Every structure is written in structure tokens, then in C-alpha cells.
Amino acid sequence: MSSTFGTLFRVTTFGESHCKGVGAIVDGVPPRMALTEADLQAQLDRRRPGQSRMTTDRKEQDRVTILSGTENGMTMGTPIGLFVANRDQRPGDYSEMSRVPRPSHADFAYQTKYGIRASSGGGRSSARETIGRVAGGAIAEKWLRETFGTEIVAWVSSVGEIDAEAVDPLAITREAVDANEIRCPDPAAAERMISAVAAAREAKDSIGGVVSCVCRNVPPGLGEPVFDKAEAMLAHAMLSIPATKGFEIGSGFSGARMRGSQHNDRFVAKAGGLGTLTNFSGGIQGGITNGEAICFRVAFKPPATIGLAQETVDFEGAPVVLEAKGRHDPCVVPRAIPIMEAMAALVLADLAMRQRMRAGT
Fold this sequence. Notes:
Blueprint: E1 4-5, E2 10-14, E3 21-27, H1 37-47, E4 64-68, E5 70-71, E6 74-75, E7 80-85, H2 107-114, H3 130-148, E8 151-159, E9 162-163, H4 174-177, H5 187-202, E10 209-216, H6 230-239, E11 244-249, H7 260-263, E12 267-270, E13 273-276, E14 284-285, E15 288-289, E16 294-300, E17 310-313, E18 319-322, H8 333-359
Antiparallel strand pairs: 1-2, 2-3, 3-7, 4-7, 5-6, 8-9, 8-10, 10-16, 11-16, 12-13, 14-15, 17-18
Helix pairs in contact: 1-3, 1-8, 3-8, 6-8
């Protein structure tokens, strides 16, 4: 099993949804950077369950503890150990499902691959695993911000068939994103999204959505063609997040409907050098960042666990009717925001360190 992401800035996550705890080992963090639990907790608070009626009612404080790698609030250049305890565990909620591979879950796939699986919750496929990513990503984001002034902001841009309108990726802030419980900075669309999620929950069903992300003040020159292109690494990172089903950057699939004369980003003189007049490339050309804002979107499927009765079969092939008893999100996109920001930070920090090594700085 691969649980490590990154080349120079590396994060290894550990833990399952109903074990004693989850966390990460972060290696490659430069020494002498100020770092305390408070630097990580804000993003973990945005990810944790039980925040609103839009999320699962599992009650977890998700308080992070730095176990190693710092002294007197400063990094030492050694591996940083991070731990978050699981406190509101209810493995009994899953006893009936231990013999049934849940529709669209990873139960069957994990059992087939390893011959064993976590019998309660989703194990390593649970969104609980992403705690380690968010904690490690918060470190990467702090380094990027202090080194380059990089800003990373994600927001909910659609729920079901409801789309946000007129969101300026160059001006969007986390404060605007967090102004409502669905984390959509378009207030009118947010109200409709909230109603759609509430309706799905009331019907014991679930609903999907899309999260958009912008990375501003990213230095040009990041990316390692041909296989570790910047957009390829972002796609790798985003599609490793649970429940993701699609990734597009810049113009994405809509660009396939355009002509080159429309799609080409013409170069113009800007303060400090060249820039582009438009940004259909999404801030990356030839797999290398060009200094423009990196803009991408990720599609999330409806959560697989629903309260509606579903006809399926158990591991022996006998017909059963399954009704989920656990606590689950009716829509994952509000809590996916800090996870996407974390994974973007991990990609950019790693690519920046690889470029610095190339340049000898």
C-alpha cells in the first residue's frame, strides 16, 4: 500500500476510521521555521465532522499534537510526527455491514486485494485518513506563504445541478468561502445548495458537487516534465482524495469546444516581466507554472453511504437489503475544501523544493 506522497517534501499518513487515532509523518520540512499546533489546527477545524447540518454528526474535536520534529516552536529539519485521536468511535454501527460489500464503497476492492479489510467504517478509504494530509498540508502552505507569498483558496462551485456564479478567483478569500455552511461564496447559490443538501439528507440520500481552487503568487518554473508536470501532480494529488471522480484545469473540458484562436493565452508585458492576457491554461504551460494563477476544479461523487434501503448481495452472493446505520455526510464538498487546499500545498511545496535543488539555492 502506498501511503506516502511527495519527493523532497513527503507526507506519510497512517490510521483508520475507527482505530485509536490517525496522523502523519512529514519529512523534508526546512529547519528554523516557526511551527506550533496552532498553525495546523485552523485547517483541521475546517475539515472536522459535526460542524453543521451539512456534515456527519460524528463528534470529533480533531485536536492535533506535534510529537516530534520541533523544539521551542521551531522546526529542526527532522521528521515531524503529527497525531489526532479518534474519540467518537462507534464500530457497532457497522456490525451488520461486516458481511456485506456496501454499494460503491471500497469494501469489495480492499477484501479482494488484501484478503482482509477494516470491518468498521471505511478503514484507510475513509475520509478520516485525510486528517494527516490536512495537517501536513498546513505545514507546506505555511512554508509557501512565507517563502513566496502563495495563497491557496478553494470553494464549492456547484452542488448537484446548482452552480455558483461570478466568483473571481483572483479576489476570493477564505473568509468569503467560510461565510456560510456550504462554503460557497455566491450567497444566492449557497442558499439553493443548502436546500438541496438538506433535501437529500431528509430523503436519506446524498448529493455530489464540484470544488474549485485557485493558487495565487505561485512562482514560475515549477514542474518536472514530462511525467511530473505540475498539472499531472495536481491531478494525482486531487484524485487521491476520497470520493473524487474528475479533475480539470484552466479551460478544462470546455477548452475542447474552442478554437486555438480563442483558447491561446497571448503574452503581454506586466510588472516584473511577461504575463498572459487570458488564463485558459490555468497557470501551467508545458507542465511548468508560468506565474499566472493556477485554477482547477475537482468533481466529487455523491457519498456512497445512504440511509435508503438498497438491494445488493453479501460476500457469499446471497441477496440482502442494506440500510446504512452509521453517521455520514449527505454531501462531502464543504469538508473537502481544506483537503484540496492541503493537497495543492503539498504538490507546490514539493515542486518548489525540487526546483530549488535544480537551481542550487
